[in-house]
Amino acid sequence: MNRQVVGFLSLFSLVLVLSIYYVASPFDKADSKEVNNEIKEDLKVENDDYYFLSYSLIRDENHRQTIEDQVAIISSSESESSEVVSARERIDLEEKIMETESILQDVINQIPFSASYVEITPTDFIMKAYKQGATADEELDLVLSIFETTDKYITNNNLDFINLENAQVEIVY
DSSP per residue over the chain, as a string? Predict the structure, then answer.
């Protein structure tokens, strides 16, 4: 691909993601409150996935950008064979990560949660879940159920690219 086309598509995708984030974010920042494992009376979730939309858009854009960067290395005539092999391995890993994030979100939703978000990076393993009508008393059980379910899936599928030591869970209710 031509570098100008890749640059244009990257810039266009970034503008698109930022536009969607701007539209999806609340207009009055003073009235919005951050959720910190406490029940907030003013949290209004219009759609189960709405809360995690901006997180998902940013995560997916990061995956897309990583893959684009690796494709540029592969398609460059100046790249050495070792760089091409490394770029292909990175693309394969990125695709595995994307697939695993999607599957783990489905696994968490079956606990049951209304919506969930999973992000896997080389250093972090972030899981967020939304359960309508949950209480603070249920929070510990919900967190433990997420850890148990995801650990079982990761172990059964031998997913060694996930850093379980830095796993984080947040419950939104």
Answer: --HHHHHHHHHHHHHHHHHHHHHHS-S-TTT-----SS--TT---SSTTGGGHHHHHHHHHHHHHHHHHHHHHHH-TT--HHHHHHHHHHHHHHHHHHHHHHHHHHHHHTTT-SEEEEEE-SS-EEEEEE-TT--GGGHHHHHHHHHHHHHHHHHHTT-TTS-GGGEEEEEE-
